[in-house]
Description:
By secondary structure, the chain is of the alpha+beta class. The chain contains three helices and three strands. Strands 1-3-2 form a three-stranded antiparallel beta sheet. The longest helix has 15 residues, at 45-59. The chain starts with a strand and ends in a 9-residue tail after the last helix.
Amino acid sequence: MMDRLLTLDEVSELTRVPVNTLRYWRHCGTGPSSARLGKRVVYRESEVVRFVDEQFADSGRGGDLDVA
């Protein structure tokens, strides 16, 4: 089954990261993996969760983030 595809606004709402920051990360090649479908930028939900989990793991303060 295919991952749910999220828009910039949905990723921003989920992560609480401003849309402009997500755009900047995309420009720099950082942040969660994304793709362009037509004129729209989309993110796989699993990639966004993986990216957030990596941020917690890299911080040394977290570990697994259980998003239910």
